[in-house]
TrEMBL record, chain A:
<dbReference type="InterPro" id="IPR014730">
    <property type="entry name" value="ETF_a/b_N"/>
</dbReference>
<comment type="function">
    <text>The electron transfer flavoprotein serves as a specific electron acceptor for other dehydrogenases. It transfers the electrons to the main respiratory chain via ETF-ubiquinone oxidoreductase (ETF dehydrogenase).</text>
</comment>
<dbReference type="InterPro" id="IPR012255">
    <property type="entry name" value="ETF_b"/>
</dbReference>
<protein>
    <recommendedName>
        <fullName>Electron transfer flavoprotein alpha/beta-subunit N-terminal domain-containing protein</fullName>
    </recommendedName>
</protein>
<feature type="domain" description="Electron transfer flavoprotein alpha/beta-subunit N-terminal">
    <location>
        <begin position="23"/>
        <end position="218"/>
    </location>
</feature>
<dbReference type="InterPro" id="IPR014729">
    <property type="entry name" value="Rossmann-like_a/b/a_fold"/>
</dbReference>
<dbReference type="Pfam" id="PF01012">
    <property type="entry name" value="ETF"/>
</dbReference>
<comment type="subunit">
    <text>Heterodimer of an alpha and a beta subunit.</text>
</comment>
From TrEMBL, chain B:
<dbReference type="InterPro" id="IPR001308">
    <property type="entry name" value="ETF_a/FixB"/>
</dbReference>
<comment type="function">
    <text>The electron transfer flavoprotein serves as a specific electron acceptor for other dehydrogenases. It transfers the electrons to the main respiratory chain via ETF-ubiquinone oxidoreductase (ETF dehydrogenase).</text>
</comment>
<comment type="subunit">
    <text>Heterodimer of an alpha and a beta subunit.</text>
</comment>
<dbReference type="Pfam" id="PF01012">
    <property type="entry name" value="ETF"/>
</dbReference>
<dbReference type="Pfam" id="PF00766">
    <property type="entry name" value="ETF_alpha"/>
</dbReference>
<feature type="domain" description="Electron transfer flavoprotein alpha/beta-subunit N-terminal">
    <location>
        <begin position="2"/>
        <end position="196"/>
    </location>
</feature>
<comment type="similarity">
    <text>Belongs to the ETF alpha-subunit/FixB family.</text>
</comment>
<dbReference type="InterPro" id="IPR029035">
    <property type="entry name" value="DHS-like_NAD/FAD-binding_dom"/>
</dbReference>
<protein>
    <submittedName>
        <fullName>Electron transfer flavoprotein subunit alpha/FixB family protein</fullName>
    </submittedName>
</protein>
């Protein structure tokens, strides 16, 4: 099984998110960077699939040179090849991102063979457009299912089983390989990178591809924080002594 | 003309579809156009609900490959319907399925798509003949809002539930039902649903009236015994923060938050949870929040309805004992 994982470098935000003066972007000067939880699971899953079935695992990002940090994280988990499709600091729109990934995948596949599986996070942790994986799959004429929390490759049959959870139940899909899946956190419990993995990733070569970026029809104008209704907090007490007032409150609500 | 993609629920229109229809209705009034609807299944159930939204026509997609949900088949069929009807825009509920079907259709026609929108309106100063839409999208599950412009011959948008008051337009006496049969070849690049399991009945995290959640402050898998006990006493469900799932204390299905379950209970009891953004966006729709934390300045404590400063290992057992004392 040859697996490719696509990840996005996003700011690691805590409680409040600082914005630039023009409101066009997140002010990242005081923030670290990461990949989203869904993508961490995609990276882990790729490592597990290759450990189980053999083959190779690669990680790809569309982003600025600093995004090598995120590629090296994935490589420290065990993904062998890192590919950066280089853009500027400015976020690319979903159509442009998907087109850049498709070009890069075609280049990579023309040199070896098609990736059996391409994994995406269900949505990126910041923009969350929920569509790049599907656009890539369609351009490459591959099936795609989103919201995936279980992957069972059946390479001997040339298929993969993909499981997803919905509010009212669980669905299992069968898709012919090569296929695309957009995954969710809960797919697995990602490991922490080992020291040896981190050292290997630090020295690893990262391949770069210069894309042709054609803007799509969705244009970000500005970001702003959502209005939040201020709640008046009632302090019910300290420590075990608060139990009385808490149960009074529960009784008032008719819950005990 | 605008098209709203609608789905049926047990009793008529799904809530997300009704919300999308209300958005379409408002937008159509501003644009001076009308609303039609499209559905893949359950035509009789949705039909009666449509007239109240001033929907004049319902397109029912009929094809053997579309009876069961299939992302690729539904997306392809919708793409063909749009090619046939050429609407100015399509609105759907920003559910997993709504986002997925519209993304599939968008990829096939080569159109942009704006997902998870809160409002949609014509852009001011938009050029005649190429009118862009101005919209506000949620980013990061609602951590930030993004004002954006969408330019396309047919604009594809998904809208979040509960974002507009369902104000019915002028009732249309009769909804014209039109069957649309897509041409679906036997494209091998297609996933097929092979199994579906309904969720067991009972108190679920997403729908429970009371949710008792534990986070880092609970400290261990065993620490959740008291969380479970309190939840049981209140007839509620157990939840947890991302820390608790990442440390293997609880299954991911218990996680409340951006990458877990979003909940809106009557009462949310957050035990030893600081309230980082990732968690907050999952529980902020709770009617009331009781936070128990050693740090009175933790975001969850300052945003809660009720706060108790203290160690959950002292406070929670004391609450359990007090409930037992009063109910015995």
């Amino acid at each position: 099984m040859d697996v490719l994982v696509c990840v996005k470098r996003v700011p690691a935000t805590g409680g409040t998110i600082p914005l630039t003066a023009d409101g066009r972007d997140v002010d990242t000067r005081s923030l670290g960077f990461t990949i989203g939880p869904h993508e961490e699971c995609a990276v882990e899953e790729a490592a597990r699939i290759v450990e189980r079935f053999g083959g190779s695992a690669a990680v790809l990002t569309v982003g600025p040179p600093q995004a090598d940090e995120q590629l090296r994280y994935a490589m420290s988990i065990g993904l062998q090849q890192g590919v950066r499709v280089t853009t500027g600091e400015e976020e690319t729109d979903p159509e442009a991102t998907a087109a850049a990934i498709v070009d890069a995948v075609r280049t990579l596949e023309s040199e070896t063979r098609p990736f059996d599986l391409i994994l995406f996070g269900n949505e990126s942790a910041d923009a969350g457009n929920c569509q790049v994986g599907i656009r890539v799959a369609h351009a490459l004429a591959r099936p795609a299912v989103g919201g995936i929390k279980g992957i069972e490759p059946q390479p001997e049959h040339g298929t993969v089983r993909l499981r997803r959870e919905l509010p009212d139940g669980i669905e299992v899909y069968a898709a012919p390989l090569p296929a695309v899946a957009a995954v969710r956190e809960g797919l697995n419990l990602p490991r922490y990178p080992a020291v040896t993995g981190r050292l290997r990733a630090k020295r690893a070569h990262i391949r770069t591809i210069e894309p042709e970026l054609v803007p799509g029809g969705l244009r970000k104008v500005r970001l702003r924080p959502p209005a939040e209704a201020a709640r008046e907090t009632v302090v019910l007490g300290h420590g075990a002594a608060a139990a009385g007032p808490v149960v009074d409150m529960l009784a008032e609500l008719g819950m005990v | 003309m605008l098209v709203t993609l609608v789905e049926s629920a047990q009793e008529g229109l799904a809530a997300g579809s009704a919300n999308a229809l209300a958005h379409a209705r408002e937008l159509a009034d501003v644009l001076g156009t009308h609303v039609e609807a499209a559905t893949f299944a359950g035509a009789p159930e949705v039909r009666d609900g449509l007239a109240g939204y001033g929907v004049s026509r319902l397109h029912v997609v009929e094809h053997g490959e579309c009876v069961e949900y299939s992302p690729e088949c539904w997306g392809e069929a919708l793409a063909q319907l749009l090619d046939d009807t050429r609407p100015d825009g399509v609105l759907a509920a920003a559910t997993d399925r709504g986002n997925e079907v519209l993304a599939q259709a968008a990829a096939r026609i080569g159109l942009p798509l704006a997902t998870n929108c809160l409002n949609v309106a014509p852009a001011t100063g938009a050029a005649e003949g190429d009118p862009a839409w101005a919209l506000t999208r949620q980013r990061g599950g609602g951590v930030l809002l993004e004002d954006a412009e969408l330019s396309a011959p047919t604009k594809l948008v998904t809208v979040l539930a509960g974002t507009v008051e369902p104000s019915a337009g002028e009732a249309v006496p009769e909804v014209d039902v039109r069957t649309f049969v897509p041409q679906l070849d036997t494209d091998p690049a297609r996933s097929r649903i092979v199994d579906r399991t309904a969720r067991e009945a009972g108190v679920s995290l997403a729908t429970a009236a009371v949710v008792v959640s534990g986070g880092r402050g609970v400290g261990s898998a065993e620490g959740f015994d008291m969380i479970e006990e309190l939840a049981e006493l209140l007839g509620g469900a157990v939840g947890c923060s991302r820390v608790a799932t990442n440390d293997g204390w609880r299954p991911h299905s218990d996680q409340v938050g951006l990458t877990g379950t979003k909940i809106a209970p009557e009462l949310y009891i957050a035990c030893g949870i600081s309230g980082a953004t990732q968690h907050w966006v999952g529980c902020r729709d709770a009617r009331r929040i009781l936070a128990i934390n050693t740090d009175p300045q933790a975001p969850m404590m300052t945003r809660a309805t009720y706060a108790v400063t203290g160690d959950v290992h002292e406070v929670v057992p004391a609450i359990i004992a007090e409930i037992r004392r009063r109910t015995e």
